[in-house]
Task: structure prediction
Amino acid sequence: MKQVQVHPERCLGCMQCMLACATAHSRTKSLFTAVGESPLPKPRLHVGAGSHDEGFPNRCRHCDPAPCLLACLPGAIFRDPDTGTVLVDPDLCINCASCAMACPFGVLRYHQDWVAPAAKIVAQKCDNCLERQHEGLIPACVEVCKTGALTFEESDEALRRKTREVARSVSMGMEEQPLIPTGVQLLRQAKKQRFEMRCR
Amino acid sequence: MEYVIIGNGIAGTSAAEAIRRLDRQGAITMIADEDEIPYCRPMISNLLAGDIAAERLAIRPSSFYDDLNIKPVLGRRVQSIDPAAGKVRVGDSDLIVPFDRLLIASGADPRISEVPGSQLPGVFCLRNRSQALDIMAAAEHGRKAVVVGGGLVGLKAAHALQSRGLQVVMLIRSAHPLRLQVDASAGRMILAKLREHGLQVLVEAEVAAFEGSGKVLENIVLADGQKIPADLAVIAKGVAPAAGFAADGPIGLGPGGGIVVNNTLETTVPGIYAAGDVAETMDVARREKRVNAIWPEAVEQGIAAGFNMAGRRVAYRGSLSRNVMRIYGLDIMTAGVVEPPAADDSYEVVAVTDKHRDIYHKLVFRDDRLVGMMLINGIEQGGVLLSLIRREVAIVEKKERLLEPGFQVGKLMPQYFK
Result:
């Protein structure tokens, strides 16, 4: 089954995915109108700075077993049996933040949402864009990622592809192809160096 | 194999389920005081507040006991255990249940007030579902309520009663609420917030008596003579392990009054296990035995005890005190050691405050390990910090970095994934 794969070594921290995520979870599904919605749609994945200030896309891993699911007091967090996606039922959620205390990746947020009961603050997390997938679309964050930091593929295929890319990058006679696109590498390097200079 | 489980709280329930995963044949008897289908105890304050319906408390189907082929003995407490004979005596009856493996998951009882009048109708505790329903019934006709105690349950009770439209006075013995969870400066922040939300809080207040003419509560009398009129009172002075039946037997109790267990949740008597609010386990942050009477630990301990009882050796890695509360416009998440012993210089404290965002974050390190945290507002990354405490990860970078705005799991790469 295809899943969103995260390749942090390619993230530039442009946050396009966050914008696309918020739009995909809006009522109107268009950035132009989404910004005027109330409650304001918010992203489910969070781009932050990595260990050297380079980009890091932080997204729910849909863990198995999922600590948030086990910690959920009202039983609002459940797993979609078909896709393994860990989801929150906004009607059952009591906004207690037990899931935030349990999540070792810090991906839960609490706010209103147009699909939740009006004015109710509920736990929000990545839902693998199941709604989009039903319409034959890929998750919104992957669709807009320009650097390949987010891909939508089978886990073992992603691994095989990476292995192939490494092998190719050191093999004679292949067209020279860097592991990470040169532009991406350059920008990440710049951020890293700026960070190191600051630390000195 | 005859399994007996004392208690149908989440520890006992989780243990029964774990046993059934490994042993479909063995007989399981569950003896419990509460005649209920397993329900979510932390949510009784939500019930009291009117946020959820009573039916929503149940966390297992009504066929739970049948589904798992459990013989329930409900509405009765265990009176004594005879470890040598492998027998449990139930209540004051002649019912004696034999066991090969016993789990004590009897939970905890609220500490009751010894002052005169505490038996008056209108004076309640908030520990179980039926007590929450009793308070709701009393609140129907009441206008004024007093909450004795400023701990987690006290705060939740006060908040719930306020949302029912009652005027609430909170009496706290110490100088600020949540004395066991937060430090003095956080305590002052919280106190101010409570008062902002219309909760009247009296600090350093000692209750001398509950007063009533006839059979109804009328006043709470303080040690200084002050009288506070009240239609109902909730005593929230914490809980104590319900281990009375083990007091003079061979089952070892710890300094916290809980039943001491090893890393397989077995007590000092082979074949007898304990889990949940009654168990005294190794606290990973404090490195000492402690009763950590919290829901997530009861779940884990129940599962681990169940597996061990059914014959699969599972090591329980120890407990960690932790709590999260979103109440009165505050988000509070705490874990482990929040106030390190002053004389011990192996501890280091790092803290930040942000007045504009009402943030106060504090981390406590022992050598290079994170052993405690206290987050007032901005709790999103609490789970990441908590996992650093539980997994005892050596922090190699500058400790202050863990509190920088924008801190998230990516900052910890790659040592986090070691």
User: Anything to note?
Assistant: The longest strand of chain A covers residues 3-6. Chain A has a mean pLDDT of 93.
